[in-house]
TrEMBL record:
Top enzyme category: oxidoreductase
UniProt name for this protein: Vitamin B12-dependent ribonucleotide reductase
Cofactor(s) of this protein: adenosylcob(III)alamin
Family matches, as InterPro entries: RdRp_reductase_class-2, RNR_2_N, RNR_lg_C, RNR_NrdJ/NrdZ, TSCPD_dom
Domain Ribonucleotide reductase large subunit C-terminal positions: 156-691
Gene3D superfamilies per the UniProt record, alphabetical: 3.20.70.20
One MF term in the entry's GO annotations: cobalamin binding
Biological-process GO terms, alphabetical: DNA biosynthetic process
Enzyme Commission number(s) from the entry: 1.17.4.1
Biased composition (Low complexity): 897-912
Residue ranges occupied by any Ribonucleotide reductase class II vitamin B12-dependent N-terminal domain in the UniProt entry: 45-135
Domain of life: Bacteria
Organism, scientific name: Nocardioides marinisabuli
PANTHER family, per database record: RIBONUCLEOSIDE-DIPHOSPHATE REDUCTASE, VITAMIN B12-DEPENDENT RIBONUCLEOTIDE REDUCTASE
């Protein structure tokens, strides 16, 4: 028996230190194959590009369990089935896919002495198969792509490269990166060894500096990306904060964003995928600055900081630390790059410091380890471990982790790697990356707010248990097949980090029975880690990360990806036989039941959420329970620091880091980003990235119009029943409410981008806007005529009851010339005249609550936010006239303040829109102004409901608007990702 490792590790593996693992049967049933416990059905998978209508994939008669959603089966069929479509070689059943992978794992385990007996190997096979087919976990995408096929058996998705200060090394970097991108994976590296442009070459000339070499690597990645790889090229480029070229690096992508704006304004196609976007550089990489504790203390104290020569290490320039920190934050505010990686924190938790420092990460920042290394990932579906009494089954979770870690380690025995240095380091250190998905859905189902002490305690204990059990199994494996090759020289450091994890576990303060039970098991696991590690050592240098889980999250039918909260409360579900329907997140009724609500109240709350997309003012819902239903976007979007605090709760229990971007509203300031970066350092995170809505131009946007169509998205299992309210279809004829002969009006002069105009608006007696007149251009000109016609059309619509907020949501953010600075203190910048006009009308006629939902604030309100942290006025006042009603929720989900007070006027202006399932039997009322018929994914649905844009790119495969997943994006329609899995 031989193992594909070298040195001491090979000897230990060959000789063996035990008799192999004795596998316990926990999930599967003896004498019954896991497949035989499920009902299987045949499905047709046909995938089209929603924008073009072209069929991009078709395979009929594929076999999946009835419990798998249509979306999950579509994604697995299109992404993971191997063989040419239309031939007998093509896989057509989930059984074939899982067998192909599991059989290779069992074979590798048997060949390398992992199991005590043949019967133990069979138990392992059945347990692994059961967990996969029942969607309890999934390996990362490369496993499904490659294992068991004639292709190289690459199992890793994450790679870290290295580059030295020589032309040979730089050119080798280009080559190695190219091979990794060709296979659909991503890589990261640190460029700080390359001397700066302020240093001399040995020949006496001046060095080019690392930023110049980034251009070539970026062009290479862009070329390979367009060549049709499985996923686009994904890169991470890191530079140390003490590098003399740090300021140039920081400004790199921000300057390119300025170029994008200038070219866009000149008429070039600068959307993501546009024909002119390729002229812009540095767009294929995520940039991060490696900051040290020394630098962050200098920022805190307001002192100077030294930039050091790459050759001698001497300080060649000093800068103001706070000024540099401000430049980093400003660039992130402008274009979302760079993020920060906290070098001393990362290396303080490093198990292999005697081998080398951790200098970089993979593109999504969750895998951090030695240069020239890789990590294979797997993620558990947390919601599967929620018991009927809504407590977390920690014992079952721990058993699943043991099986999965065993399989992940076996994969390194037979895996292939893109380069020999990567293969050697991986075989010598055997880094693993177990993680989880569906945390947001789990917390909601348990009645715990994502941004709450209870939610963070639950997440921390689960993460601690996962990593503790992983290292416990790693120590057990070391007793069977030997520790990793590099363990001997790093034993003291490795055991020190294990003690740090255990100490962090001891500081967790549980708040309820559920997290106490998990914490008790985690504490026992860490005690076993210390005991077994002292005796056996460890099989793996690293064990856990929290990855984006984009495509595999959909494969497992997860509502939420990675560590993320729920994206929205309303979603789309594909139906067997074709079509889709809008549903309310199925964890919501479970959460309401957990919190003690009766069936009648649950039905009313769910119906309200279906109509409005949020829980604010939901009938019978207590305000103290609102936080349970906070989401990534919408009316109850989580505060940015809520994301940071959740990451901080879980970070001490991870070998690596967390793939997550902290999303901020468009109104966020540079100071807010500074605070997030600074607090992340204080709270012990290893990496942080920020994204401010609409900060990037070079990607397709819906402009709040919901005009980007997409394919139907996934959602809960196909057998799930959806509770919908059946109502009679009633059609109300609209009536026109004319303005009185004499009415209050106001005239506003304005300038947008140098173009002057006038707007006159008239109101009803109750203050509701009823008409507008726009004066632009000379009388008799085409522009003046178009504006007159537009004014008449909007005025008639207002008088027939179309709410002003509907017009505002449709016409704000429209982009065309003239655009730019205005002379209005409340609206300093406008993307077009229409954008300005409807922002002004919103400020004049809409109450604060409705404007807040549209992110439209006056200058005084923005100033109040800077001073008090709240936009809300102390005492609410009306716009053009005194308010005549107290706020109440109307049929459209907005406040009825400033509108006609009578219910009759609301009824008169409403339409009833039917939505059907495949039987056509279910109907429910949807106000016309909240029509969601044009949406085909959850992201587009939220755009329709909220009237604001989801700042995400479109999927290249199917045209669907993607949604955030960690620090990447994932397509709900086909499972494609923006570079991570």
């Amino acid at each position: 028996m031989t193992e594909t490792v070298s040195g001491a590790g090979a000897d230990a593996a060959t000789k063996g230190q035990g008799k192999g693992l004795t596998m316990e049967r926990v999930f599967s049933t003896e004498g019954v194959h896991p497949y035989d416990e499920l009902t299987w059905e045949s499905r047709d998978v046909v995938q089209t590009n929603w924008k073009t209508g072209a069929t991009v994939f078709e395979q009929r008669g594929v076999e999946f369990p009835a419990t798998w959603s249509v979306n999950a089966s579509t994604i697995v069929t299109t992404k993971y089935f191997r063989g040419a479509v239309g031939t007998d070689a093509r896989e057509r059943s989930l059984k074939q896919l899982i067998n192909r992978v599991v059989e290779q794992y069992v074979k590798g385990g048997v060949e390398h002495g992992y199991f005590a007996t043949k019967a133990d190997a069979e138990v392992f096979e059945h347990e692994l198969t059961w967990l996969l087919v029942n969607q309890y976990f999934s390996f990362n995408s490369p496993v499904w792509f490659n294992v068991g096929t004639p292709s190289p058996q690459q199992v890793s998705a994450c790679f870290i490269l290295s580059v030295d200060d020589s032309m040979d090394s730089i050119l080798n970097w280009y080559k190695e990166e190219g091979f990794i991108f060709k296979g659909g994976s991503g890589a990261g590296l640190n460029l700080s060894r390359i001397r700066s442009s302020k240093e001399l070459l040995s020949s006496g000339g001046t060095a080019s500096g690392p930023v110049s070499f980034m251009r070539g690597a970026d062009a290479s990645a862009g070329t390979i990306k367009s060549g049709g790889a499985t996923r686009r090229a994904a890169k991470m480029v890191v530079l140390d904060v003490d590098h003399p070229d740090i300021e140039e690096f920081v400004a790199t992508k921000a300057r390119e964003e300025d170029k994008i704006r200038a070219l866009r304004d000149a008429g070039f196609d600068m959307d993501l995928g546009g024909e002119d976007i390729t002229s812009v550089q540095y767009q294929n990489a995520n940039n991060s600055v490696r900051v040290s504790d020394e630098f962050m203390r200098a920022v805190e104290e307001g002192t100077e900081f030294g930039l050091r020569s790459r050759g001698t290490g001497e300080v060649i320039e000093t800068v103001d630390a706070r000024e540099l920190f401000r430049k980093i934050s400003t660039a992130a505010w402008e274009c979302a790059d760079p993020g920060l990686q906290y070098d001393d924190t990362i290396n303080d938790w490093h198990t292999n410091p005697e081998t080398g420092r951790i200098t970089a990460s993979n593109p999504c920042s969750e895998y951090m380890s030695l240069d020239n290394s890789s990590c294979n990932l797997a993620s558990l579906n947390l919601l599967k471990f929620l018991k009927d009494d809504d407590t977390f089954d920690a014992e079952l979770f721990a058993k699943a982790v043991e099986v999965i870690i065993t399989a992940m380690d076996i994969s390194i025995c037979f895996a292939d790697f893109p380069t020999e240095p990567i293969g050697q380091t991986t075989r010598d250190y055997r880094q693993l990356g177990i993680g989880y998905a569906n945390l947001g859905a789990l917390l909601m189902a348990m009645g715990l707010g994502y941004d709450s002490d209870g939610g963070r305690s639950m997440a921390a204990t689960i993460t601690s248990l996962m990593t503790g059990v992983s290292y416990k199994r790693s120590a057990e494996l070391a007793g069977v097949v030997g520790p990793y090759t590099g363990y001997a020289r790093n034993a003291d450091a490795h055991k020190r980090v294990m003690r740090k994890h255990q100490a962090a576990n001891d500081t967790v303060r549980t708040l309820h029975i559920a997290d106490s039970q998990v914490h008790k098991l985690a504490t026992a696991a860490w005690a076993d880690v210390q005991k077994l590690g002292e005796t056996n050592g460890f099989r793996n240098a690293q064990a856990s990360v929290l990855a984006p889980t984009g495509t595999i999250g959909f494969m497992m039918d997860c509502d939420t990806t990675g560590i993320e909260p729920d994206f929205s409360l309303v979603k789309f579900k594909k139906l067997v036989g074709g079509g889709s329907m809008q549903i309310v997140n199925q964890t919501i009724p479970r959460a309401l039941k957990k919190m003690g609500y009766q069936p009648e109240s649950i039905e009313a709350i769910v119906a309200y959420i279906a109509e409005h997309g949020h829980v604010i003012d939901a009938p019978g819902l207590k305000t103290e329970h609102y936080e349970v239903f906070d989401t990534a976007m919408g009316a109850r979007a989580l505060a940015p620091m809520g994301h940071v605090r959740m990451m901080a709760a879980c970070q001490p229990f991870l070998s690596g880091a967390i793939s997550k971007t902290v999303n901020l509203p468009e109104t966020a300031t540079v100071e807010e980003i500074e605070d997030i970066y600074f607090q992340s350092w204080k709270l012990g995170l290893k990496a942080t990235a920020c994204y401010r809505d609409n900060c990037k131009v070079g990607q397709p946007m819906s402009s709040g119009k919901g005009e980007n169509k997409g394919t139907d998205s996934n959602r809960p299992a196909a057998t799930d029943e959806v509770e919908t309210k059946v109502v009679e279809k009633v059609v109300y004829a609209p009536t026109r409410k004319r303005l009185p002969k004499s009415r209050v009006s106001r005239t506003t002069s304005f300038t947008v981008g140098g173009a002057e105009g006038y707007m006159t608006s008239g109101a009803h007696e109750d203050g509701q806007l009823g008409e507008i007149f726009l004066k632009l251009g000379k009388q008799g000109s085409t522009l003046a005529g178009v504006m007159d016609a537009f004014s008449i059309a909007v005025s008639i619509g207002l008088q027939y009851g179309v709410p002003l907020e509907t017009y505002v949501s449709k016409f704000t953010n429209l982009r065309f010339e003239p655009a730019g600075l205005t002379d209005d203190a409340d609206v300093r910048m406008a993307q077009s005249i229409m954008d300005y006009i409807f922002r002004r009308l919103a400020l004049d006629y809409l109450p604060f609550e409705e404007r807040e939902a549209l992110s439209i604030y006056s200058a005084d309100e923005r100033q109040r936010y800077l001073e008090t942290g709240s936009y809300e006025p102390v005492e609410e006042t009306g716009g053009a006239a005194e308010l005549v009603d107290t706020p109440s929720v109307g049929r459209d989900g907005g406040s009825s303040v400033g509108r006609a007070a009578s219910e009759a006027s609301v009824v008169e202006t409403a339409e009833v829109v039917e939505t059907h399932d495949t039987e056509g039997s279910n109907q429910r009322e949807v106000p016309a102004q909240r029509d969601t018929s044009g949406a085909h994914t959850s992201a587009e649905l939220m755009e329709k409901i909220t009237g604001t844009a989801v700042d995400s790119p479109l999927c290249f495969t199917c045209g669907t608007k993607m949604r955030p997943a960690g620090s990447c994006y994932v397509c709900e329609g086909c499972g494609s990702t923006s570079g991570c899995s």
